[in-house]
Amino acid sequence: MEIPAGGKRLHGTLTLPEGARSVVLFAYASGSSRHSARNQLLAEALARAGLGALLFDLLTPEEEAAEAYTRHLRFDIDLLAGRLFEATAWLVRREETRRLRAAFIGASTGAAAALAAAARLGEQVGAVVSGGGRPDLAAPMLALVTAPTLLIVGALDTRGLALNEQALAQLRCEKELLIVPGASQLFEEPGTFDQVAVLATEWFTHHLD
Q1: For residue 69, what pLDDT is reported?
Q2: Would the pTM of this model clear 0.70, i.e. be above it?
Q3: Complete domains list, the chain, with CATH
């Protein structure tokens, strides 16, 4: 699908299992994409739990190509959050999805974008999950987030853990920080990303039913 956002056309894939009442929008950092095997694995886990998923690229192919050299857009939280906001509005305009409750999942700087967008959307967002994310980059917006928020951090990611603990203290919503043993920031160790998928799915099913 093509999603209009800020005069751009973003590419995405929408999966809706039968009877879905919610849809999780993915906000991943530059360098990942809707074609990522891990993103698709997570979308499949959500689908088995009856949750829809919108995997879409926050950057256009041209922006992604430039980003490979400049590495500046991945830290433009306002830009990324704005596109996540517009993707949510696009879902609301569609007949097949306008009754579904939105939720966000983000990684790296995408997690900050998810939290910033959730702060803008208020109760329209049912839950947020950050997996190996940088929620600290959304610091000015964290106190405004109302959606139940789960922060997942790898035990080996000591710097990330400290930044997530700081962000946790600033959140005023229902919140939790969970640590995956033996995992680094990207959860590349065997079995660790599977744990992230389980924790995220449980959080969403609990808060979106």
Answers
A1: 59
A2: yes
A3: 2-208 (3.40.50.1820)
d(CA 9, CA 57): 10
- What does the block give as tokens for 182? 């033996």
| pLDDT tens-digit series, residues 146-164 | 999 999 999 999 999 999 9
Helical packing angle, 109-121 and 77-93, nearest 10°: 50
Spatial CB neighbours of 151, under 8 Å, sequence gap ≥ 6: 130, 133, 135, 164, 167, 168, 175, 176, 177, 178
Q: What is the 3-state secondary structure (H, E, C) of the chain?
A: CEEEECCEEEEEEEECCCCCCEEEEEECCECECCCCHHHHHHHHHHHHCCCEEEEECCCCHHHHHHHHHHCCHHHCHHHHHHHHHHHHHHHHHCCCCCCCEEEEEEEEHHHHHHHHHHHHHHHHEEEEEEEEECHHHHHHHHHHCCCCEEEEEECCCHHHHHHHHHHHHHCCCCEEEEEECCCCCCCCCCCHHHHHHHHHHHHHHHHHC
Instruction: Give the residue among 120, 127, 172, 126 at the shortest CA–CA distance from 152.
Output: 127
